[in-house]
Amino acid sequence: MKVYLNSAKENWVIDRFRKEWYTSNNSISTKLINKSDIVWIISPWTWRKININKLSKKKVICSIYHLDEDKFNENDLKEFNFRDKYVDIYHVISENTKKQIEKITDKPVISIPFWVNQKIWYKIDEKNKLREKFKLETEAFIVGSFQRDTEGKDLVSPKLSKGPDQFLKIVEKYKENNKKVTVLLTGKRRNYIIENLEMLEIPFNYFEMVSFKELNELYNCLDLYIVSSRYEGGPQAIMECAVTRTPIISTNVGIASQVLDRKSIFNMDTFMNAEPNVDYAFDKVQEYLIPSGFDNFRKIMNEVYEN
To answer: What pTM does this model have?
Structure first.
């Protein structure tokens, strides 16, 4: 059995997962689609770059990370149905997405969260030293958000699926209770939150593009990470916070209920009562660490290959 993974080539998290898969599963993998038995469409938005004739001759696993139900339209469904003809089994990373996909296909849908690379993400017990490195206030209560929040079409409109408006509401309330609150942002397309933080006069620090090493250090600078999304596949930040023991609260999206204590999950009526539980999240994330985090994926590959 040989597995081929398609690539986004966008320097996105999926490209890192693809690299980690090939590194740890070399004996059952190939980078040549012609030599593969299974094609894993791990970057579903680039699936049309794969030769249709080759897909039709292979076993096909397709990962779907989430459906933004507010945007999913007839054209999206048409595209899904066309690809669905070539897919044998779907992979999702959360039970919430599984329920979405099962509504629009009769193919099997398997929910498995992605693995976590503990060599990249880990706890560092030097918070003040790290804050000094990044010129962050050592006495501030630092709230993190490392997910894009602005639509790429105009770099102005909020990406509402990520809940940036909800994030701002939460931070504004925290600021009322603690004058030392500041926000730490990373990543591209943070325009909407930055503009509104400036309007609200809430201090922030922005590191647009950082290395994985620096991103891990920034997690370790935080007092709280907030996931305020309306729809999510992961987000992988939940796993990364869990393994770095970063305090986190989240809406009930993606893998939140699979990793976080229920007291750490909120809606917009209860966010002030949400409580991080780093010990609970750290314990939950252990089964997803490399190499055990690959086990269920290998099992799927074997089942697809044998059937």
So the answer is: 0.91
